[in-house]
Every structure is written in C-alpha cells, then in structure tokens.
Amino acid sequence: MKRLLSLLVIAVLGAGLTGCKSVPQPPDPDAVSEWIQEQSASDRPGLATMAGAPRNASGPTTEGEESITVDFASATSVTGVEFSCFGEESMSVAFELRGAAETRSTGSDDLVCADSPHLLPEALDGVIGVSVSGTSEHGSGAWSVVVLGEEQ
Hints:
alpha+beta; Jelly Rolls; 7-stranded mixed β-sheet
C-alpha cells in the first residue's frame, strides 16, 4: 500500500511539474536592434513603415505606449497591413485606420513570429492616418508594420 501511495504521489507531482510554464529569456537587445534595422532597410513597397516594442499583455499601459501613429499628407487608399514580429513566440497587433468620413479599428491575435510576415487585409479609402500597437505575453522583442495601399 505504501508503495502504491508513493507511486501515486510521484505521478501527481510529475504531472504538476510538466504543467509548469517557464518564463523565456528575453531576446538579446542587439539581435532586436539588428532585426529592426533589417525591417527599416527592407525594400517592401508600402505607404508607411512603423516598428516598435510590444506592450506586455499583462502589464499596465503607460502614457505614450499605446500606439505608433503615422499621418499622411493627403488621403490614401489603404488595402491592409503587413505585420512581422521578432523575439517572442507570438504577438498580437491592433491597428486603426482614420479617414475623413470613417475610422476603423481591427487587429489579430496570436500571430506566430516565425511565420512573419502576416498579411492583414483591411481596405479603406480616404485614410489620413494609421495607428498601430503590438502586444506580447512578456513585452519583449519587436514588431514591424508596413501599411499597404496607394496614394489617391
């Protein structure tokens, strides 16, 4: 009976330990900087390119951390965004297209960084500005967005 109880305790402890999730090490800051530079130097066609550090999904948002915004000199026709990320397993993105007549907010969750870039179609004419924010589980790594479309 003692042996059966001991095996049961070991099995329960083993199952509990395999369910524990370790916190991954943050990516090397030099690797993140290099990735951002590569994204900025890319010749991908687009109306605008933005990059930033993700918010921590479980942490509070501080002033100025909400999003990165680009305003266009004239109205544009946006067809979507191309989202890439680095340094975490996955990230979420939220973006807002601001037009003279309409504002549209959308996004996508759990985009796998290793599968970047992710095309997120969202068409709107007359766009005068775009705001983007990225979120990850631990708030590490970086994200990049290329706004796709044509000037009107």
